[in-house]
Amino acid sequence: MNDQTPAAGKPASASGAGAPDAASQSARRNERLALLALAGMAVGWGYNWVVMKSVLTYVGPFDFSALRNLFGALLLLAVLVVLRRPMRIQAWGRVALLGVLQTGAFSALIQVALLQGGAGKTSILVYTMPFWVIPMAWVVFGERVRGLQWLALVLAALGLTLILEPWTLHSDFMSELLAVSAGLCWALATIVAKWIKRDYPMEALPLTAWQMLFGALALCLAAWVVPEKPIDPAPYFYGALIYNAVIATALAWYLWLFALQHLPASVAGMSALGVPVVSVLAGWLQLGEQPGTLELAGMVLIGVALVVISLRSSGK
Length: 316
Known about the structure:
Blueprint (H helix, E strand, L loop, with lengths): L13 H41 L6 H23 L8 H25 L2 H8 L2 H13 L6 H17 L8 H27 L4 H22 L9 H28 L2 H6 L3 H14 L5 H21 L3
Helix pairs in contact: 1-4, 1-9, 1-11, 2-3, 2-8, 2-9, 3-7, 3-8, 4-7, 4-11, 5-7, 6-12
């Protein structure tokens, strides 16, 4: 703010008074756009669980995982070229490990879990990732578990127990374990990402593109080794592939990065809660997935635990 006061009887100059107003208006406009971007990202990622479930009628889980991530990685690399952003990165070994965990193993486990599991419930189990990160970060980085984090861990454990029902061997029990394993892989990938950021700070977009390419190549190898049914080139298969490469990968990641530029990280992190909510609603409306009483109670507990974690992260 300008420390000089305009002389009495003389209006403030347009350049002096208007500049701060214009800057604040631009900031507010960007914040509103960022919130819309987060909503779009949540819808794009949330509905993709239904898409990934439905497309398995036409293609095997490894084939689809390899194709969607390969096209997504190539699209992100093309975006880097168009934007003339630097593509060089450091710590190739760590980036490759990140890709194998975050893109390769994570995507494969999700797709195999969706063979027998519901889209909504699978997404809820995968989004237990934050609760695995907490003890991992304690062991690796010495980040102590504090306050509300203990409450979140207890609520998540109760919710997970109600969903898994380990006292009964129901038909989709293995699917549920695979979904939880995907959440564990995501948590491990988060630790690797923090490891990279600590020693080799990199821009998010090239790091995302390259790790996705490494993971996609690992998935291509897995698809070549694991025998699966032939791909049925139905229109839905191509539509699902385009949706995953363009909307659920390139566009969603762009919206996420845009939101991070104009909103606090804690606010942006809260948007992750919208993804499983959208997937549960979409699975119910489109696929007729109606959770039982215990499953619904478990989902609610995990949802509450995620809110608690988000409040703790935002310092509330």
